[in-house]
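It is worth pausing here to work through a concrete case rather than discussing structure prediction in the abstract. The textbook approach is simple: state the sequence, then state the predicted structure, then interpret. We follow exactly that order.
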Amino acid sequence: MAFVKGAWRILVAIKDGLVLLFLLLFFGLLYAALSFSPKPAQSVRSGALLLDLDGSIVEQPAEVGAMQLLSGSGPDAKEYRLSDILAALDAAKSDDKVKAVVLNLDGFLGGGQVTMARVGKALDGVRAAKKPVLAYATLYSDDGYQLAAHASEVWSDPLGGVALLGRGGSNLYYKGLIDKLGVNTHVYRVGTYKSFVEPFIRTDQSPEAKQANQALADALWQDWQEDVTKARPKAKIAAYAADPLGAAQSAGGNIAKAALAAGLVDKLGDEAAFGQHVAQIAGDAADDKPGSFASIDLAAYVKARRPANDGQIGVLTVAGDIVDGEAGPGTAAGDTISDLLLTALDEKDLKALVVRVDSPGGSVMASEKIRGAILQAKKAGLPVVVSMGNVAASGGYWVSTPGDIIFAEPDTITGSIGVFGIIPSFEGTLAKMGITTDGVRTTPLSGQPDVAGGTTPQFDQIMQLGVEDIYRRFVGLVAQSRKKSPDAIDAIAQGRVWDGGTARQIGLVDRFGGLEDAIAEAARRAKLDPAKARAYAIEKKPDAFTEFVQSIVEREKDDAGAPRDMLARQAWMQRGWAMQAVSDVKALVMGAGVRADCLECRGYGAPKPRNVAEERGMLAMLAAVWR
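Step two, the predicted structure:
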């Protein structure tokens, strides 16, 4: 008995000690977070500005919570803000401490054609300032090579090379599986080209969707080749991309040598050899690690030059899927974005507003809420200028309609002016298991939508009428914005997606230009000096605790990432089909709601997979009543 008591005391003591340790750790972290403030910018030493892009370039990085960071459950790839990279490259042109710019693209995941072209232009500016730009990767893909083509030297590992895939790819179609399961998919849509619902009602693309999508892919691929060829005239881009097998055969299967022979790369060497070459230009590193060189950290360089966020040109970013409710940066939540804008209008002395859109759309209700907040800026007398990034389609175009003028890029994906709703019912599935439904009704809509027993014809007709009404409203908003008749807009709408070049020709956008052009135009319209006008970013700021945890986590960088050989790399890049399937099923089963969304925008730099589980709208509310 004495032994048991002694063992119990030991267990209690261990428990108390663990509790005390946890409390000390908790309050220590709490104190550190409360007292944490970003370190003042330190002077940057001389060397090569290193863009070690182990992730993707985005308009607005997604918010990662402190608990996600601590638990290691955050995203597996880093996101770099486009404006930070552009600002760093602009500063590097005249900074004597920056001897060169180095692109390490081994872990680069891309960021969309508009983004790549914009960064490429900034790299051209560095080279025009007589500073070398050197790029390295084991294997270059399309986005990575579009950046590398703007470098003065392009290196590849002897076991790597260049794999140009071009634009296009496959989507998943679930009609066969849905039929086998006995699921009845109810679709309400307007738009000949509104193909978002096709995976649930067809086994392949409709002829109309295929024609439109092929035209879009051809236009983007043509622009990609022109940009790369202009940046690197000696490269035989067209021949290499058109006949990759012939290029590989001529080099005996050595992809790296094939790329070298075609002029796509300048030198073959491993990362250590590349680093030694950079060291001859930028200087030696403080350590003697093989391949190291004197480098300037991108994050530190950006922080040292980040201007105060106190300008008079408000910049509201609508990036990611447009969803109802609240969400952090990287997702365009209707409540969050509208609240941020209305607060800025109330508290700041803004003279103009720029709306930066990089979204494939989503919830109609959330899109309308964001549009309503932008209209409040117009009512306050502020000029509103819209700047489109990679994607501004469907709901992304809906929120753009209040703009006095719309800027886009030739490769911006826009349009997709169409509306749809979708909801499944499982009466066929249940019947296969011997389960049926019955009940009583007091109105034609009692119990609707009945996902167990099926919808009624009256319900289906009402929903279709509602979707048609929203489409007419969408067309009317665009017609008012573009100063055209509804019939003229309907002719170019119908859910069709357009590249920016064509969109300008048909009047959906006004001018070509980037965010800086939109800010300058907003300043002119507000009677401010464009050369002196500064931006005020209207977005949620991270809390002190998250910043504190982020500063710790970034010190423990994990170099594991995308595989580097060609076969594994391409297979890894195509892993998204599994995530797409999960997202699509979730959208079908839980994502009831009237939507203005874009299927074709996937794969063209569109933001993260859709998240529609929380959407409201009429269908969602009716489904909630049924549940």
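Step three, interpretation. The radius of gyration is 27 Å. The CA atoms of residues 259 and 473 lie 52 Å apart.
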